């Protein structure tokens, strides 16, 4: 209520100061200090909502919908699916941003095309190890921001941050590589066994 009575420029500066932790997130740090990057960060800060979770709260459930990004200000979480600890300055649910960018399309009028029935499901459980203070960004707000700034968010540097610098995606990719390598070794082992049996005939 106090913010609403202040000049818009002052509101923006206060938000940038209060939510400066957003720039510590790998994805948003790649936006740099450009005018467009600041505009996107301002749009995100306007939509952040404060949230408190108690110890033992489930933030994400395996097979459940991912409906928000959670920016951790204080406290600890554990991502059980890929055994990744999360703490102050980390973000949970960043895959939702990547999904919104990849699944956003714009028609000739510049309006976003929505695909009904498409939702992102979690493949991990995330639980609070302690009481957690955080700010959340809802899926609807992320869709709105990515729809408005879709061209900028498709920048290779931003995409690289999402795919290669995000702790979740790094761990997820490592897991997939390990599975693929085990499958490859199994196929090679079978091929060697078949060749050995053939040579004995």
TrEMBL record:
A GO term from the CC aspect: membrane
Q: What is this protein called?
A: Cyclic nucleotide-binding domain-containing protein
Taxonomic source organism: Vitis vinifera (Grape)
Cross-referenced InterPro entries, in alphabetical order? cNMP-bd_dom (IPR000595), cNMP-bd_dom_sf (IPR018490), RmlC-like_jellyroll (IPR014710)
Going by the entry's taxonomy, the superkingdom of the source organism is recorded as Eukaryota
Q: Name one GO biological process term.
A: monoatomic ion transmembrane transport
Keyword annotations of the record? Ion channel, Ion transport, Ligand-gated ion channel, Transport
């Amino acid at each position: 209520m106090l913010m609403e009575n202040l000049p818009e420029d002052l509101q923006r500066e206060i938000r940038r100061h209060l939510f400066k932790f957003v720039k510590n997130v790998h994805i948003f740090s790649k936006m740099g200090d450009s005018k467009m990057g600041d505009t996107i960060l301002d749009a995100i800060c306007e939509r952040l909502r404060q949230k408190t979770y108690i110890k033992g709260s489930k933030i994400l459930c395996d097979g459940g919908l991912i409906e928000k990004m959670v920016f951790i200000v204080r406290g600890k979480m554990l991502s059980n699916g890929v055994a990744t600890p999360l703490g102050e300055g980390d973000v949970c649910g960043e895959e939702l941003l990547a999904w919104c960018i990849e699944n956003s399309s714009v028609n000739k009028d510049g309006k976003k095309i929505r695909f009904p029935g498409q939702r992102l499901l979690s493949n991990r459980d995330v639980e609070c190890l302690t009481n957690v203070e955080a700010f959340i960004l809802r899926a609807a707000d992320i869709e709105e921001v990515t729809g408005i700034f879709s061209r900028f968010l498709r920048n290779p540097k931003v995409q690289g941050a999402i795919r290669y610098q995000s702790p979740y995606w790094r761990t997820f990719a490592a897991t997939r590589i390990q599975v693929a390598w085990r499958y490859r070794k199994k196929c090679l082992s079978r091929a060697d066994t078949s060749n050995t049996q053939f040579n004995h005939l």
